[in-house]
Amino acid sequence: ADVIDLEWEVEYMHWSPDCIESVVMGINGRFPGPTINATAGDTINIKLTNGLHTEGVVIHWHGITQVGTPWADGTASISQCAINAGETFVYRFKVDKAGTFFYHGHFGMQRSAGLYGSLIVNEVAPKAEPVPKAILSYDGEFTLLLSDWWHQNVHTQEVDLSGVPLRFIGEPQAILMNGRGQFSCSAAAHFNKVKQCNYTATPQCQPQPLHVDPDKTYRIRIASTTALSSLNFKIQDHELKVVEADGNYVEPFSVDDLDVYSGESYSVLLRTKKTSGNYWISIGVRGRKSTTPPALTILNYSPVPWEKHPSSAPPVHPDWNDYSRSKSFSNKIKAPLDAEQKGYKSPPEKQGRRIVLLNTQHTVKDQIKWMINDISLALPSTPYLGAIKYSLNEAFSQDTLHENYSNPDYDITLPRNANAKISDAVYKLEYNETIDVILQNANMLNKNHSEIHPWHLHGHDFWVLGYGEGKFNGTDLETEFNTKNPPLRNTVVVYPYGWTALRFVADNPGVWAFHCHIEPHLHMGMGVVFAEAVDKIKEMDINNKAFMCGFTGDMFRESFGKK
Ligand code: C2O
Ligand code: CU
Protein backbone atom coordinates (compact mmCIF):
# COMPACT_ATOMS: atom_id res chain seq x y z
CA ALA A 1 0.00 0.00 0.00
CA ASP A 2 1.14 3.52 -0.82
CA VAL A 3 0.98 6.89 0.82
CA ILE A 4 -0.59 9.42 -1.53
CA ASP A 5 0.80 12.86 -0.73
CA LEU A 6 -1.21 15.83 -1.93
CA GLU A 7 -0.98 19.57 -1.42
CA TRP A 8 -4.19 21.45 -1.93
CA GLU A 9 -5.25 25.04 -1.64
CA VAL A 10 -8.92 25.96 -1.50
CA GLU A 11 -9.77 29.32 -3.03
CA TYR A 12 -12.60 31.30 -4.56
CA MET A 13 -12.26 31.87 -8.27
CA HIS A 14 -14.20 33.04 -11.28
CA TRP A 15 -15.67 30.14 -13.21
CA SER A 16 -18.52 29.45 -15.63
CA PRO A 17 -19.96 26.08 -14.56
CA ASP A 18 -23.18 26.60 -16.56
CA CYS A 19 -21.81 29.01 -19.21
CA ILE A 20 -22.57 31.99 -16.92
CA GLU A 21 -19.65 33.43 -14.98
CA SER A 22 -19.95 33.02 -11.20
CA VAL A 23 -17.62 32.63 -8.25
CA VAL A 24 -16.93 29.01 -7.25
CA MET A 25 -14.87 27.38 -4.53
CA GLY A 26 -12.07 25.58 -6.31
CA ILE A 27 -8.99 23.57 -5.36
CA ASN A 28 -5.61 24.28 -6.94
CA GLY A 29 -7.30 26.42 -9.58
CA ARG A 30 -9.73 23.71 -10.63
CA PHE A 31 -13.45 23.15 -10.35
CA PRO A 32 -14.51 20.54 -9.36
CA GLY A 33 -11.45 19.77 -7.24
CA PRO A 34 -8.88 17.19 -8.38
CA THR A 35 -9.94 13.52 -8.55
CA ILE A 36 -8.12 11.32 -6.04
CA ASN A 37 -7.25 7.92 -7.47
CA ALA A 38 -6.17 5.44 -4.82
CA THR A 39 -5.99 1.69 -4.21
CA ALA A 40 -7.61 -0.06 -1.27
CA GLY A 41 -5.24 0.02 1.70
CA ASP A 42 -3.54 3.28 0.69
CA THR A 43 -3.06 6.17 3.07
CA ILE A 44 -4.07 9.62 1.88
CA ASN A 45 -2.04 12.50 3.24
CA ILE A 46 -3.43 15.89 2.23
CA LYS A 47 -1.90 19.20 3.24
CA LEU A 48 -4.87 21.50 2.91
CA THR A 49 -4.31 25.25 2.88
CA ASN A 50 -7.21 27.61 3.31
CA GLY A 51 -6.88 30.33 0.66
CA LEU A 52 -10.40 31.70 1.16
CA HIS A 53 -9.15 34.85 2.96
CA THR A 54 -12.33 35.55 4.94
CA GLU A 55 -13.74 32.23 6.15
CA GLY A 56 -12.77 28.86 7.58
CA VAL A 57 -12.86 25.58 5.69
CA VAL A 58 -12.91 21.78 6.21
CA ILE A 59 -13.22 18.84 3.80
CA HIS A 60 -15.16 15.64 4.50
CA TRP A 61 -14.28 12.33 2.78
CA HIS A 62 -17.75 11.02 2.13
CA GLY A 63 -18.04 7.24 2.54
CA ILE A 64 -14.60 6.74 4.11
CA THR A 65 -15.16 5.28 7.58
CA GLN A 66 -12.09 6.82 9.29
CA VAL A 67 -11.51 3.84 11.60
CA GLY A 68 -8.97 5.05 14.15
CA THR A 69 -8.84 8.58 12.69
CA PRO A 70 -12.15 10.22 13.67
CA TRP A 71 -10.34 13.60 13.80
CA ALA A 72 -9.81 13.37 10.00
CA ASP A 73 -13.53 13.13 9.12
CA GLY A 74 -13.61 16.79 8.10
CA THR A 75 -16.78 17.98 9.82
CA ALA A 76 -16.55 21.46 11.37
CA SER A 77 -17.68 21.56 15.05
CA ILE A 78 -17.91 17.76 15.12
CA SER A 79 -14.52 16.24 14.28
CA GLN A 80 -12.37 19.36 14.11
CA CYS A 81 -12.18 23.17 14.25
CA ALA A 82 -12.61 24.90 10.91
CA ILE A 83 -9.20 25.65 9.39
CA ASN A 84 -8.64 29.39 9.60
CA ALA A 85 -7.93 31.52 6.55
CA GLY A 86 -4.25 31.26 5.64
CA GLU A 87 -3.68 28.16 7.78
CA THR A 88 -2.78 24.63 6.75
CA PHE A 89 -4.15 21.38 8.19
CA VAL A 90 -3.02 17.86 7.32
CA TYR A 91 -5.64 15.15 6.81
CA ARG A 92 -4.21 11.66 7.05
CA PHE A 93 -6.43 8.62 6.77
CA LYS A 94 -6.64 5.18 5.23
CA VAL A 95 -8.94 4.19 2.38
CA ASP A 96 -9.52 0.60 3.40
CA LYS A 97 -12.14 -0.41 0.85
CA ALA A 98 -12.51 -0.13 -2.93
CA GLY A 99 -15.41 1.92 -4.25
CA THR A 100 -16.78 5.15 -5.66
CA PHE A 101 -16.54 8.01 -3.19
CA PHE A 102 -16.25 11.77 -3.20
CA TYR A 103 -15.22 14.59 -0.91
CA HIS A 104 -16.84 17.90 -0.11
CA GLY A 105 -16.84 20.93 2.17
CA HIS A 106 -18.63 20.40 5.50
CA PHE A 107 -18.71 23.85 7.04
CA GLY A 108 -21.75 26.08 6.56
CA MET A 109 -22.97 25.53 3.00
CA GLN A 110 -19.55 25.25 1.35
CA ARG A 111 -20.58 22.13 -0.54
CA SER A 112 -23.18 24.22 -2.39
CA ALA A 113 -20.44 26.73 -3.18
CA GLY A 114 -18.70 24.10 -5.28
CA LEU A 115 -16.22 22.56 -2.85
CA TYR A 116 -16.23 18.94 -4.01
CA GLY A 117 -14.47 16.33 -6.12
CA SER A 118 -14.27 12.58 -6.79
CA LEU A 119 -12.42 10.01 -4.69
CA ILE A 120 -11.98 6.67 -6.43
CA VAL A 121 -10.58 3.67 -4.60
CA ASN A 122 -9.57 0.78 -6.86
CA GLU A 123 -9.43 -2.89 -5.99
CA VAL A 124 -5.98 -4.21 -5.21
CA ALA A 125 -4.90 -5.79 -8.52
CA PRO A 126 -5.40 -9.55 -8.39
CA LYS A 127 -2.11 -11.46 -8.13
CA ALA A 128 -0.91 -13.07 -11.35
CA GLU A 129 -1.23 -16.75 -10.34
CA PRO A 130 -3.45 -18.70 -10.72
CA VAL A 131 -5.61 -17.02 -13.36
CA PRO A 132 -6.20 -13.41 -12.20
CA LYS A 133 -9.84 -12.75 -11.54
CA ALA A 134 -11.01 -9.26 -10.81
CA ILE A 135 -14.30 -8.85 -8.96
CA LEU A 136 -15.58 -6.81 -11.90
CA SER A 137 -14.14 -6.84 -15.36
CA TYR A 138 -14.60 -4.06 -17.87
CA ASP A 139 -12.71 -2.43 -20.74
CA GLY A 140 -12.73 1.14 -19.53
CA GLU A 141 -14.27 3.43 -16.95
CA PHE A 142 -15.71 6.92 -16.49
CA THR A 143 -16.43 8.98 -13.40
CA LEU A 144 -19.40 11.35 -13.31
CA LEU A 145 -19.79 13.59 -10.29
CA LEU A 146 -23.24 15.19 -10.34
CA SER A 147 -24.20 18.46 -8.67
CA ASP A 148 -26.63 21.35 -8.96
CA TRP A 149 -25.80 25.01 -9.34
CA TRP A 150 -27.32 28.37 -8.38
CA HIS A 151 -26.27 31.80 -9.54
CA GLN A 152 -27.09 33.16 -6.10
CA ASN A 153 -24.01 32.82 -3.86
CA VAL A 154 -24.24 30.62 -0.76
CA HIS A 155 -23.77 33.49 1.68
CA THR A 156 -26.99 35.04 0.39
CA GLN A 157 -28.61 31.59 0.48
CA GLU A 158 -27.65 31.10 4.13
CA VAL A 159 -29.14 34.47 5.10
CA ASP A 160 -32.28 33.73 3.06
CA LEU A 161 -32.79 30.34 4.72
CA SER A 162 -32.39 31.73 8.25
CA GLY A 163 -34.54 34.78 7.55
CA VAL A 164 -37.99 35.66 8.85
CA PRO A 165 -39.85 34.99 6.68
CA LEU A 166 -37.72 32.28 5.14
CA ARG A 167 -36.79 32.84 1.51
CA PHE A 168 -36.28 29.49 -0.16
CA ILE A 169 -33.31 29.09 -2.50
CA GLY A 170 -35.60 27.86 -5.30
CA GLU A 171 -34.70 25.45 -8.06
CA PRO A 172 -31.11 25.33 -9.32
CA GLN A 173 -30.17 27.11 -12.54
CA ALA A 174 -28.37 24.02 -13.84
CA ILE A 175 -27.46 20.40 -13.17
CA LEU A 176 -23.72 19.83 -13.54
CA MET A 177 -21.80 16.73 -14.68
CA ASN A 178 -18.20 16.95 -13.50
CA GLY A 179 -18.86 20.64 -12.94
CA ARG A 180 -20.29 21.32 -16.40
CA GLY A 181 -23.85 22.33 -17.25
CA GLN A 182 -25.77 24.70 -19.48
CA PHE A 183 -28.00 27.59 -18.43
CA SER A 184 -30.45 29.02 -21.00
CA CYS A 185 -28.66 27.25 -23.81
CA SER A 186 -28.53 23.58 -24.67
CA ALA A 187 -26.40 20.84 -26.09
CA ALA A 188 -29.61 19.64 -27.81
CA ALA A 189 -30.59 23.04 -29.18
CA HIS A 190 -32.26 21.89 -32.39
CA PHE A 191 -34.58 19.56 -30.48
CA ASN A 192 -35.78 21.85 -27.73
CA LYS A 193 -35.82 25.43 -29.09
CA VAL A 194 -33.25 26.74 -26.62
CA LYS A 195 -30.26 28.43 -28.20
CA GLN A 196 -27.07 26.50 -28.89
CA CYS A 197 -24.36 27.08 -26.29
CA ASN A 198 -21.23 28.89 -27.38
CA TYR A 199 -18.51 26.62 -26.04
CA THR A 200 -15.78 28.57 -27.77
CA ALA A 201 -16.64 31.58 -25.62
CA THR A 202 -17.05 29.55 -22.42
CA PRO A 203 -15.17 26.23 -22.72
CA GLN A 204 -15.62 25.60 -18.96
CA CYS A 205 -19.26 24.57 -19.53
CA GLN A 206 -18.63 22.34 -22.54
CA PRO A 207 -19.97 18.85 -21.75
CA GLN A 208 -17.44 16.01 -21.59
CA PRO A 209 -18.52 13.28 -24.01
CA LEU A 210 -17.96 9.65 -23.02
CA HIS A 211 -15.86 8.15 -25.80
CA VAL A 212 -16.44 4.43 -26.29
CA ASP A 213 -15.76 1.64 -28.79
CA PRO A 214 -18.43 -0.75 -30.06
CA ASP A 215 -19.02 -4.12 -28.38
CA LYS A 216 -17.22 -3.39 -25.12
CA THR A 217 -18.08 -3.08 -21.42
CA TYR A 218 -17.57 0.15 -19.50
CA ARG A 219 -17.93 0.96 -15.84
CA ILE A 220 -19.58 4.31 -15.18
CA ARG A 221 -19.11 5.62 -11.65
CA ILE A 222 -21.89 8.02 -10.73
CA ALA A 223 -22.03 10.04 -7.51
CA SER A 224 -24.28 12.89 -6.47
CA THR A 225 -23.25 15.79 -4.29
CA THR A 226 -26.28 17.93 -5.14
CA ALA A 227 -27.39 20.57 -2.66
CA LEU A 228 -31.07 19.89 -3.30
CA SER A 229 -31.96 17.81 -6.32
CA SER A 230 -32.81 14.13 -6.59
CA LEU A 231 -31.59 12.99 -9.99
CA ASN A 232 -32.32 10.37 -12.62
CA PHE A 233 -29.60 9.07 -14.93
CA LYS A 234 -30.46 7.69 -18.35
CA ILE A 235 -28.59 6.79 -21.53
CA GLN A 236 -30.63 6.74 -24.72
CA ASP A 237 -31.31 3.18 -26.00
CA HIS A 238 -28.90 1.52 -23.55
CA GLU A 239 -29.45 -0.64 -20.51
CA LEU A 240 -27.44 -0.14 -17.36
CA LYS A 241 -26.38 -2.92 -15.01
CA VAL A 242 -26.09 -1.71 -11.39
CA VAL A 243 -23.12 -3.36 -9.63
CA GLU A 244 -22.09 -1.04 -6.80
CA ALA A 245 -23.83 1.28 -4.36
CA ASP A 246 -21.94 3.61 -1.95
CA GLY A 247 -18.70 1.64 -2.20
CA ASN A 248 -20.35 -1.76 -1.73
CA TYR A 249 -20.98 -4.36 -4.40
CA VAL A 250 -24.64 -5.26 -4.91
CA GLU A 251 -26.34 -8.19 -6.60
CA PRO A 252 -26.26 -6.99 -10.24
CA PHE A 253 -29.55 -5.96 -11.85
CA SER A 254 -30.43 -4.13 -15.06
CA VAL A 255 -32.42 -0.93 -15.44
CA ASP A 256 -33.28 1.62 -18.13
CA ASP A 257 -32.54 4.54 -15.83
CA LEU A 258 -31.46 5.04 -12.24
CA ASP A 259 -32.35 7.41 -9.40
CA VAL A 260 -29.43 9.01 -7.59
CA TYR A 261 -30.00 10.96 -4.37
CA SER A 262 -27.58 13.41 -2.87
CA GLY A 263 -24.85 11.54 -1.00
CA GLU A 264 -25.25 8.31 -2.99
CA SER A 265 -22.89 6.72 -5.45
CA TYR A 266 -23.36 3.88 -7.93
CA SER A 267 -21.37 1.98 -10.50
CA VAL A 268 -23.18 0.73 -13.57
CA LEU A 269 -21.83 -1.47 -16.34
CA LEU A 270 -22.65 -0.37 -19.85
CA ARG A 271 -22.43 -2.83 -22.73
CA THR A 272 -21.94 -0.89 -25.97
CA LYS A 273 -23.72 -1.76 -29.21
CA LYS A 274 -22.03 -3.57 -32.07
CA THR A 275 -22.31 -0.56 -34.38
CA SER A 276 -21.17 3.04 -33.96
CA GLY A 277 -23.38 6.04 -33.26
CA ASN A 278 -23.98 8.92 -30.88
CA TYR A 279 -26.52 8.74 -28.03
CA TRP A 280 -27.72 11.20 -25.40
CA ILE A 281 -26.78 10.86 -21.77
CA SER A 282 -29.30 12.79 -19.71
CA ILE A 283 -29.56 13.67 -16.02
CA GLY A 284 -32.94 15.02 -14.99
CA VAL A 285 -34.47 16.15 -11.70
CA ARG A 286 -37.00 13.96 -9.90
CA GLY A 287 -38.73 14.05 -6.52
CA ARG A 288 -39.73 17.70 -6.86
CA LYS A 289 -41.49 19.66 -9.53
CA SER A 290 -38.42 21.35 -10.91
CA THR A 291 -37.96 23.91 -13.64
CA THR A 292 -34.32 22.91 -14.09
CA PRO A 293 -33.66 21.27 -17.47
CA PRO A 294 -31.70 18.00 -17.59
CA ALA A 295 -27.92 18.04 -18.00
CA LEU A 296 -26.87 16.50 -21.30
CA THR A 297 -23.79 14.93 -22.76
CA ILE A 298 -23.01 12.43 -25.50
CA LEU A 299 -22.15 8.74 -25.48
CA ASN A 300 -19.82 8.84 -28.44
CA TYR A 301 -18.79 5.72 -30.37
CA SER A 302 -15.55 6.00 -32.28
CA PRO A 303 -14.98 6.86 -35.07
CA VAL A 304 -18.09 9.14 -35.19
CA PRO A 305 -17.23 12.77 -34.25
CA TRP A 306 -18.88 13.55 -30.90
CA GLU A 307 -20.22 16.90 -32.16
CA LYS A 308 -22.57 15.07 -34.51
CA HIS A 309 -26.01 15.17 -32.85
CA PRO A 310 -27.92 11.98 -32.23
CA SER A 311 -30.74 11.73 -34.77
CA SER A 312 -33.52 11.88 -32.14
CA ALA A 313 -34.33 14.08 -29.13
CA PRO A 314 -32.87 13.33 -25.68
CA PRO A 315 -34.68 10.60 -23.70
CA VAL A 316 -37.50 11.52 -21.33
CA HIS A 317 -37.11 10.80 -17.60
CA PRO A 318 -39.83 9.13 -15.49
CA ASP A 319 -42.37 11.55 -13.97
CA TRP A 320 -40.99 13.52 -11.03
CA ASN A 321 -43.66 12.20 -8.64
CA ASP A 322 -43.73 8.55 -9.71
CA TYR A 323 -42.64 7.39 -6.25
CA SER A 324 -43.69 3.78 -6.74
CA ARG A 325 -41.13 3.57 -9.52
CA SER A 326 -38.44 5.04 -7.24
CA LYS A 327 -39.36 2.66 -4.42
CA SER A 328 -39.22 -0.34 -6.71
CA PHE A 329 -35.71 0.74 -7.71
CA SER A 330 -34.64 1.13 -4.04
CA ASN A 331 -36.00 -2.32 -3.26
CA LYS A 332 -33.96 -3.94 -6.03
CA ILE A 333 -30.72 -3.07 -4.26
CA LYS A 334 -29.58 -6.16 -2.37
CA ALA A 335 -26.37 -7.62 -1.01
CA PRO A 336 -24.62 -9.79 -3.62
CA LEU A 337 -25.14 -13.55 -3.56
CA ASP A 338 -21.42 -14.09 -3.10
CA ALA A 339 -21.52 -11.50 -0.33
CA GLU A 340 -18.65 -12.80 1.75
CA GLN A 341 -16.24 -12.80 -1.15
CA LYS A 342 -17.19 -9.19 -1.74
CA GLY A 343 -16.43 -8.08 1.78
CA TYR A 344 -19.93 -8.24 3.27
CA LYS A 345 -20.73 -9.15 6.83
CA SER A 346 -24.25 -10.18 7.77
CA PRO A 347 -26.08 -7.96 10.23
CA PRO A 348 -26.61 -9.15 13.80
CA GLU A 349 -29.99 -10.89 13.97
CA LYS A 350 -31.48 -8.54 16.56
CA GLN A 351 -31.04 -4.92 17.43
CA GLY A 352 -29.79 -3.93 20.85
CA ARG A 353 -31.28 -0.47 20.84
CA ARG A 354 -33.79 1.22 18.59
CA ILE A 355 -33.74 4.94 17.89
CA VAL A 356 -36.78 6.35 16.09
CA LEU A 357 -36.06 9.71 14.42
CA LEU A 358 -39.16 11.69 13.52
CA ASN A 359 -38.49 14.22 10.72
CA THR A 360 -40.67 17.33 11.02
CA GLN A 361 -40.56 21.06 10.42
CA HIS A 362 -41.33 23.71 12.98
CA THR A 363 -40.81 27.35 13.77
CA VAL A 364 -38.51 28.49 16.56
CA LYS A 365 -38.62 32.23 17.23
CA ASP A 366 -40.41 32.56 13.86
CA GLN A 367 -37.56 30.88 12.00
CA ILE A 368 -38.48 27.73 10.08
CA LYS A 369 -36.36 24.79 11.22
CA TRP A 370 -36.14 21.08 10.48
CA MET A 371 -36.58 19.01 13.61
CA ILE A 372 -35.56 15.53 14.63
CA ASN A 373 -37.68 14.42 17.60
CA ASP A 374 -38.51 18.08 18.26
CA ILE A 375 -34.87 19.20 18.26
CA SER A 376 -33.20 21.26 15.56
CA LEU A 377 -29.45 20.69 15.46
CA ALA A 378 -27.19 23.71 15.92
CA LEU A 379 -23.51 22.87 16.14
CA PRO A 380 -21.38 24.06 19.10
CA SER A 381 -18.22 26.18 18.78
CA THR A 382 -16.02 23.48 20.35
CA PRO A 383 -15.87 20.30 18.23
CA TYR A 384 -17.56 17.42 20.05
CA LEU A 385 -14.65 15.05 19.48
CA GLY A 386 -12.18 17.28 21.36
CA ALA A 387 -14.72 18.17 24.05
CA ILE A 388 -15.36 14.46 24.72
CA LYS A 389 -11.70 13.45 24.57
CA TYR A 390 -10.84 16.03 27.26
CA SER A 391 -14.11 15.68 29.23
CA LEU A 392 -15.12 19.32 28.73
CA ASN A 393 -18.81 18.77 29.49
CA GLU A 394 -19.63 22.48 29.40
CA ALA A 395 -18.81 22.55 25.66
CA PHE A 396 -22.21 21.17 24.62
CA SER A 397 -25.60 20.29 26.10
CA GLN A 398 -25.59 17.09 28.16
CA ASP A 399 -29.38 16.65 27.74
CA THR A 400 -30.71 13.21 26.91
CA LEU A 401 -32.55 13.10 23.60
CA HIS A 402 -35.78 11.25 22.80
CA GLU A 403 -35.35 7.82 21.19
CA ASN A 404 -38.97 7.40 20.29
CA TYR A 405 -42.01 9.53 19.50
CA SER A 406 -42.35 12.03 22.34
CA ASN A 407 -46.07 11.84 21.61
CA PRO A 408 -46.99 8.25 20.62
CA ASP A 409 -50.27 9.45 19.04
CA TYR A 410 -48.50 11.85 16.76
CA ASP A 411 -50.21 12.05 13.36
CA ILE A 412 -47.53 12.11 10.64
CA THR A 413 -50.02 13.36 8.05
CA LEU A 414 -50.52 16.73 9.77
CA PRO A 415 -48.14 19.67 10.15
CA ARG A 416 -46.21 19.64 13.44
CA ASN A 417 -47.34 21.79 16.29
CA ALA A 418 -45.50 20.99 19.48
CA ASN A 419 -42.64 22.05 21.69
CA ALA A 420 -39.54 22.43 19.68
CA LYS A 421 -36.11 23.76 20.41
CA ILE A 422 -32.63 24.24 19.12
CA SER A 423 -29.92 22.15 20.76
CA ASP A 424 -26.45 20.67 20.36
CA ALA A 425 -27.12 17.57 22.49
CA VAL A 426 -25.95 14.18 21.13
CA TYR A 427 -26.93 10.50 21.18
CA LYS A 428 -24.31 8.50 23.07
CA LEU A 429 -23.78 4.99 21.72
CA GLU A 430 -22.11 2.20 23.70
CA TYR A 431 -19.15 0.40 22.16
CA ASN A 432 -20.27 -2.55 19.99
CA GLU A 433 -23.95 -1.89 20.60
CA THR A 434 -26.21 -2.87 17.67
CA ILE A 435 -28.24 0.18 16.71
CA ASP A 436 -31.44 0.22 14.68
CA VAL A 437 -32.53 3.57 13.38
CA ILE A 438 -36.03 4.16 12.09
CA LEU A 439 -36.19 7.32 10.01
CA GLN A 440 -39.81 8.40 10.14
CA ASN A 441 -40.95 10.96 7.60
CA ALA A 442 -43.98 13.20 8.21
CA ASN A 443 -45.79 16.26 6.97
CA MET A 444 -43.75 19.46 6.79
CA LEU A 445 -45.18 22.85 7.83
CA ASN A 446 -47.18 23.23 4.61
CA LYS A 447 -50.31 21.13 4.53
CA ASN A 448 -50.17 17.99 2.37
CA HIS A 449 -46.43 18.14 1.81
CA SER A 450 -43.79 15.62 2.72
CA GLU A 451 -40.39 15.64 1.03
CA ILE A 452 -37.70 13.11 0.19
CA HIS A 453 -34.69 13.11 2.53
CA PRO A 454 -31.49 11.21 1.74
CA TRP A 455 -29.86 10.50 5.11
CA HIS A 456 -26.10 10.01 5.32
CA LEU A 457 -24.14 8.45 8.19
CA HIS A 458 -20.50 9.30 8.86
CA GLY A 459 -18.05 6.69 10.17
CA HIS A 460 -20.09 3.66 9.03
CA ASP A 461 -21.83 1.70 6.39
CA PHE A 462 -25.22 0.44 7.58
CA TRP A 463 -27.56 -2.33 6.47
CA VAL A 464 -30.79 -1.10 4.93
CA LEU A 465 -33.43 -3.35 6.50
CA GLY A 466 -36.41 -1.99 4.64
CA TYR A 467 -38.79 0.78 3.69
CA GLY A 468 -42.41 1.19 4.74
CA GLU A 469 -45.42 3.42 4.19
CA GLY A 470 -47.03 5.53 6.89
CA LYS A 471 -46.08 5.49 10.53
CA PHE A 472 -43.73 2.87 11.94
CA ASN A 473 -45.65 1.33 14.80
CA GLY A 474 -43.09 -0.85 16.48
CA THR A 475 -42.26 -4.47 16.80
CA ASP A 476 -44.86 -6.07 14.51
CA LEU A 477 -43.18 -4.44 11.52
CA GLU A 478 -39.81 -5.84 12.50
CA THR A 479 -40.75 -9.21 11.09
CA GLU A 480 -40.69 -7.55 7.67
CA PHE A 481 -37.08 -6.46 8.07
CA ASN A 482 -34.72 -7.96 5.54
CA THR A 483 -31.89 -9.43 7.60
CA LYS A 484 -31.06 -12.01 4.93
CA ASN A 485 -29.45 -9.91 2.17
CA PRO A 486 -29.75 -6.25 3.15
CA PRO A 487 -27.43 -3.96 1.16
CA LEU A 488 -24.69 -2.01 2.92
CA ARG A 489 -24.80 1.71 2.26
CA ASN A 490 -23.80 5.02 3.78
CA THR A 491 -26.79 7.00 2.47
CA VAL A 492 -30.43 5.99 2.33
CA VAL A 493 -33.58 7.77 1.29
CA VAL A 494 -36.73 8.19 3.34
CA TYR A 495 -39.78 8.60 1.12
CA PRO A 496 -42.65 11.06 1.74
CA TYR A 497 -44.91 9.89 4.61
CA GLY A 498 -42.86 6.70 4.93
CA TRP A 499 -40.15 5.17 7.08
CA THR A 500 -36.76 3.57 6.45
CA ALA A 501 -35.08 1.11 8.83
CA LEU A 502 -31.33 0.62 9.07
CA ARG A 503 -28.90 -1.18 11.37
CA PHE A 504 -25.26 -0.72 12.27
CA VAL A 505 -22.83 -1.82 14.97
CA ALA A 506 -21.28 0.96 17.02
CA ASP A 507 -17.73 -0.36 16.62
CA ASN A 508 -16.00 2.82 15.44
CA PRO A 509 -15.08 5.14 18.33
CA GLY A 510 -15.61 8.73 17.25
CA VAL A 511 -18.23 11.43 16.87
CA TRP A 512 -20.27 10.97 13.73
CA ALA A 513 -22.81 13.15 12.01
CA PHE A 514 -26.00 11.54 10.72
CA HIS A 515 -28.01 13.98 8.64
CA CYS A 516 -30.13 14.77 5.63
CA HIS A 517 -27.73 15.34 2.73
CA ILE A 518 -29.85 18.15 1.32
CA GLU A 519 -27.67 21.17 2.14
CA PRO A 520 -30.45 23.66 3.04
CA HIS A 521 -32.12 21.00 5.22
CA LEU A 522 -28.93 20.37 7.20
CA HIS A 523 -28.42 24.12 7.46
CA MET A 524 -31.92 24.31 8.96
CA GLY A 525 -31.06 21.71 11.60
CA MET A 526 -31.89 18.37 9.98
CA GLY A 527 -29.37 16.10 11.61
CA VAL A 528 -28.24 14.33 14.76
CA VAL A 529 -24.82 13.51 16.21
CA PHE A 530 -23.73 10.10 17.47
CA ALA A 531 -20.98 10.10 20.12
CA GLU A 532 -19.77 6.54 19.85
CA ALA A 533 -17.78 4.67 22.51
CA VAL A 534 -17.04 7.74 24.61
CA ASP A 535 -14.67 5.81 26.94
CA LYS A 536 -12.58 4.63 24.00
CA ILE A 537 -12.36 8.17 22.63
CA LYS A 538 -10.82 9.31 25.90
CA GLU A 539 -8.05 6.69 25.52
CA MET A 540 -7.52 7.31 21.83
CA ASP A 541 -4.65 9.16 20.19
CA ILE A 542 -6.13 12.09 18.34
CA ASN A 543 -4.50 14.89 16.39
CA ASN A 544 -4.65 17.87 18.75
CA LYS A 545 -4.06 20.30 15.87
CA ALA A 546 -7.71 19.67 15.00
CA PHE A 547 -8.86 21.27 18.27
CA MET A 548 -7.21 24.69 18.61
CA CYS A 549 -10.54 26.51 19.03
CA GLY A 550 -13.29 26.87 21.63
CA PHE A 551 -12.89 25.22 25.05
CA THR A 552 -10.22 22.83 23.77
CA GLY A 553 -8.25 25.78 22.42
CA ASP A 554 -8.46 27.53 25.81
CA MET A 555 -7.26 24.33 27.48
CA PHE A 556 -4.22 24.06 25.24
CA ARG A 557 -3.33 27.75 25.72
CA GLU A 558 -3.59 27.44 29.52
CA SER A 559 -1.33 24.41 29.66
CA PHE A 560 1.13 26.26 27.40
CA GLY A 561 1.12 29.23 29.83
CA LYS A 562 2.00 26.93 32.74
CA LYS A 563 5.16 25.61 31.12
CU1 C2O B 1 -21.55 14.03 2.33
CU2 C2O B 1 -22.10 14.91 6.28
O1 C2O B 1 -21.89 14.56 4.29
CU1 CU C 1 -33.95 16.70 3.90
Automatic annotation (TrEMBL):
EC number: 1.10.3.3
Protein's UniProt keywords contain Glycoprotein: yes
InterPro entries for this protein: Cu-oxidase-like_N (IPR011707), Cu-oxidase_2nd (IPR001117), Cu-oxidase_C (IPR011706), Cu-oxidase_fam (IPR045087), Cu_oxidase_CS (IPR033138), Cu_oxidase_Cu_BS (IPR002355), Cupredoxin (IPR008972), CuRO_3_AAO (IPR034267)
Catalysed reactions, semicolon-separated: 4 L-ascorbate + O2 = 4 monodehydro-L-ascorbate radical + 2 H2O
Places the protein is found: Secreted
One example GO MF annotation: copper ion binding
Keyword Cell cycle tagged: no
Cofactors demanded by this protein: Cu cation
A Pfam family per the record: Cu-oxidase
Enzymatic class: oxidoreductase
Keywords: Copper, Disulfide bond, Glycoprotein, Metal-binding, Oxidoreductase, Repeat, Secreted, Signal
PROSITE patterns: MULTICOPPER_OXIDASE1 (PS00079), MULTICOPPER_OXIDASE2 (PS00080)
Any one annotated GO CC term: extracellular region
Domain called Plastocyanin-like: residue spans: 10-123, 141-302, 409-534
Family matches, as PANTHER family: FI03373P-RELATED, MULTI-COPPER OXIDASE
Family per record: Belongs to the multicopper oxidase family.
Subunit description: Dimer.
UniProt name for this protein: L-ascorbate oxidase
